Amino acid sequence: MTGDPVPALNGGTHINLTVRDLERSTQWYCRALGFTVVRDARPVESGFHFRTLLHSRALTSIVLGQADEPRTEPFDEHRVGLHHLAFHVPERETLLEWVAHLDRAGVAHGGVEKLFLEAGYGVWLRDPDNIWLELYWLNAEYFMRKMREHHRAKRAERAASAS
């Protein structure tokens, strides 16, 4: 890390997930998480059928892709690559609304759990391909405290090296 300023990011916009059954996954993400299909595409020579799903309240999207020659093994977060996918909720109480929604939709989940290291609270679930998903509320004060501690340590380090 060079210490050079890093350009801004404005949140996540989309993620592409490879799935085994495009229809099943599309139905699940729409039913379980409230996404809507906005595009269906088969780019020439890509080897994939893609479907873009948009969540209108978050302006984030998931692009599901099924390979023309799909693999059959389920997702495993222990392999190199994606560990899990998380969606932030605006208030801690919103997690209770999600639990009620998931229950009505018949989607298995772990209920609201306290996240480690005072990070906040979350609800964990898995999609039809076993991809681990998290709905979470962030304890912003915890992270702001950590960021202040980091900046103070950097200032002290610079002051020590200047003297």
N- to C-terminal separation?
23 Å
Mean pLDDT metric? 89
Low-confidence blocks of residues: none
The residue fraction in helices comes out at 25-40%
Notes on the structure:
By secondary structure, this protein is α/β, with parallel strands linked by helices. The chain has 3 helices and 8 strands. It has helices at residues 22-33, 94-105, 140-162; strands at 14-18, 36-41, 48-55, 60-67, 85-88, 109-114, 120-126, 132-138. The longest helix has 23 residues, at 140-162.
Sum this structure up briefly:
By secondary structure, this protein is an alpha/beta fold. Helices cover 29% and strands 31% of the residues.
Key words describing this protein structure:
2,3-Dihydroxybiphenyl 1,2-Dioxygenase, domain 1, globular, 163 residues, 2 domains, four-stranded mixed sheet, alpha/beta
Per-chain topology:
Elements: E1 14-18, H1 22-33, E2 36-41, E3 48-55, E4 60-67, E5 85-88, H2 94-105, E6 109-114, E7 120-126, E8 132-138, H3 140-162
Parallel strand pairs: 1-4, 5-8
Antiparallel strand pairs: 2-3, 3-4, 6-7, 7-8
